[in-house]
Amino acid sequence: MTTKKEKFARFGFATKGVVHLLIGIAAAMTAVGFRNDKLNMQGVIEFLADQIFGKLLLLTLVVGLCCYTFWLWYKTAYANFKSDNKFEILVTRISLFFGGLFYLLLAFSAALVLIDASRAGQSNSKLINSILGSKHAQIIAIIIGVGLLVKAGYQLYFAYQQIFKGDIESKDQHGNKRYWLHFSGRVGYTARGIVIGVMAYLFLRSGLTNDVFNVEESDAFTWLRDVFGVVPMGIIALGFAVYGFFFLSKSMYSDLDVVN
């Protein structure tokens, strides 16, 4: 990659890291009774908008998420994967493409809040209600649930096999630094896999019982708290924050040579 593309990618990694770090910290604080805010991507956008220099923070978020989308789509088209399994490579490319689409939509949502917070909220609600209120809502919920279930399994497999290690190897890493980078990756991907798995379960349950509703990270954390208690929820929330820390580290140490 050229230096300019590399900078875009690293800024995107850092932005994704900050978003997940904020969600994880907010969820951990909620677990011990300090907060009751929405623990999702939209909640992060609203939180940043309420801060001093909120518009500047949102503008930075929009640019960062667009940079991360650029990296995912660039990797979709040009990455040289080591695997000889063509089906596995195809699935990976499809996953990267839709991941980029998700973060682009999140950037668009943040841009709407930046332009007009009230209009953004109304447009988001209108879109969600139109989708979930349609006659095909059950089928949509089940499809999303199956997709999330596959993604959750992939995240856990990623953590177990430590596939992420190849992306963050650097000659500048020694001893404890390398160990903690690998540890944060394994913990982070595991926690995120669990949260996505819970979201998959909630989507499938709502689709199969004809009780369709919009499922987000906040619902997953709430379900974990209600079913397993505050401590497991807090541990997974901290793991989610560790995932954010891992991507912040990835912005500094990621090996971008996989793309020529």
Description:
The chain is mainly alpha-helical and 260 residues long. It has one domain (3-258). The protein has helices spanning 3-31, 41-49, 54-78, 86-115, 117-132, 137-161, 165-168, 176-208, 217-228, 230-253. Helix 1 runs antiparallel to helix 10 (230-253), helix 2 (41-49) packs parallel to helix 4 and helix 6 packs antiparallel against helix 8 (176-208). The longest helix has 33 residues, at 176-208. The protein is globular, with a radius of gyration of 18 Å. It starts with a helix and ends in a 7-residue tail after the last helix.
Q: Looking at the structure, what is the overall shape?
A: globular
Instruction: Give the helix level as a range of percent.
Output: over 70%
- Describe the largest sheet: none
What Rg do the Cα atoms give? 18 Å
SSE series: HHHHHHHHHH
Proportion of residues in β-strands: under 5%
How many structural domains are formed by the residues?
1
Unreliable stretches: 118-123
Number of helices: 10
Distance between the termini: 5 Å
SS elements, strand count: 0
Q: What is the average of the pLDDT values?
A: 79
Structural class estimated from helices and strands: mainly alpha
